[in-house]
Amino acid sequence: MEKQCIVGVDIGSFKVSATAAKVDDNDELIILDSVVLESQGIENGEIININEVASILKECISNLELLINSPIKEVYLGIPGGICKILDGKGDIGLSKEEEKIEERHIERVLKVSKEDVALNDEEIIDIIPYRYIVDDDIEIKDPIGLKANRLESNTKLVVAKKPMIISRLKVFQSIGINIKALLIQSESSKDMYDETTYFKENTMIIDTGSDISDVAYYEEGILIDTFSIPLGGNIITKDIAFCNNINNKSAESLKKKDIDLSEILISIKKEEDLMQSNIVEQIILARVEEILSLIETKAKERGYEIDSIVLLGGGISLFKGIRELASGIMNKPVYILNPKETLNKPLAINSFGIVKNVYNELKLNNNNSNEIQYDKQKEKIDKEALEFKNARIRKRSNKSFVSKIKKALDGFF
């Protein structure tokens, strides 16, 4: 693998984080450092002030450059699952007699075909995630390269997002002179950090609770099926604490972060059968966390999820002590808290860390020298020839392989 720096960026309503890593001589991923700053100019996942977001992002990148003693010119950007939807795609191509075996170009072709008949409304496909190939109507396989075939089919999941949501992010990065190498749906990055062996055998719901929004992604045996969000996150807890205690939000945030164990509070309340035995801050936190998790559970049931396990991450609620026990009790499912050891000193950088790990695991870095995504200010559009997200992937051909990306995955963006 070519040795180069990988930088992942996550932009949320509460914080902006960036993580840098490198691949060592043994092809191992080494995390260099992370930076987390308070966010500005973004609410409920939408950029409302491009200049404010650009300013804080520039500061974040500059601080990271100082820490790793290296300039940063390109990044991989995470896109919240809550602003995306998942569609099914199907590709089908024939091979000529001269084309004896399936090659990389055939994979690229069949993946491109898989998105051609999808109806979109002011939306665009930002990622193509293949999960099955079928050779000659018979053989189902994850990696068909090298096989002799007359016909190749692909089953894919198409990640779709609203064009304005994507364009606003591209504008921010172009304004500070940083190239976006690819957009990655955040839940795929989170999935890569979840090392439980049962993950690819079970139906798993990933809950990423941020400041204003909780994003949810549902997987069946490792395949992304659906995403949604609810307009509640950790910020509602802060605001309630501030209002009830007549203090500002900064002081309320500090109170929220005190050593509070939700499971102990719940046990105490049930035992005493008197809410007055716990203080007002504990009552607010417990009530709001229960509300967020209950709303997610209700919506998941409405969407027909058949959940075996749940993964929690994000700074909204997952950092509370006792959250695992509380969530498991509400949802009656095993709950895992995603907090990799590499992020323990900076837990709010978990999403940008996940992006880096996802890129390391799934992108063929030595073929990653194509055009970056550019925004043309004068034409008020994105250059569709340069808009090569190249995220259509052949996932994990072997334990040491990486995913190739296809050219012009977003032809016809404009």
- Averaged pLDDT: 80
Q: Give me the Rg, rounded.
A: 22 Å
Strand order of the main beta sheet, please? Answer: 3-2-1-6-11
Distance between the termini: 34 Å
Largest sheet at a glance? 5 strands, mixed
Assembly state: single chain
The helix/strand order is: EEEEEHEEHEEEHEHEEEHHHHEHEHEE
Structural class: alpha+beta
Low-confidence spans: 273-277, 364-371, 382-414
Helix content: 25-40%
Q: What's the shape? A: globular
Beta-strand percentage? 25-35%
Q: What count of helical segments does DSSP give?
A: 10
How many DSSP E strands?
A: 18
Describe this structure in words.
The radius of gyration is 22 Å and the shape is globular. The chain is built from ten helices and 18 strands. 43% of the residues are buried. By secondary structure, the chain is of the alpha+beta class. Helix 9 links the parallel strand 15 (309-313) and strand 16 (335-337). Helix 1 (50-68) packs across helix 3. The protein is 30% helix and 28% strand. Strands 3-2-1-6-11 form a five-stranded mixed beta sheet, with helices on both faces.
Could you list some keywords that capture this structure?
alpha+beta, five-stranded mixed β-sheet, 30% helix, 28% strand, globular, disordered C terminus
Q: What order do the helices and strands come in, and which of them pair?
A:
Blueprint: E1 5-11, E2 15-23, E3 29-38, E4 42-43, E5 46-47, H1 50-68, E6 74-79, E7 84-94, H2 104-113, E8 123-135, E9 139-141, E10 151-162, H3 163-175, E11 179-185, H4 186-193, E12 203-209, E13 214-220, E14 223-230, H5 234-245, H6 249-256, H7 262-272, H8 280-302, E15 309-313, H9 323-331, E16 335-337, H10 350-362, E17 375-376, E18 381-382
Parallel strand pairs: 1-6, 6-11, 12-15, 15-16
Antiparallel strand pairs: 1-2, 2-3, 4-5, 7-10, 8-9, 8-10, 12-13, 13-14, 17-18
Helix pairs in contact: 1-3, 4-10, 5-6, 5-8, 8-9
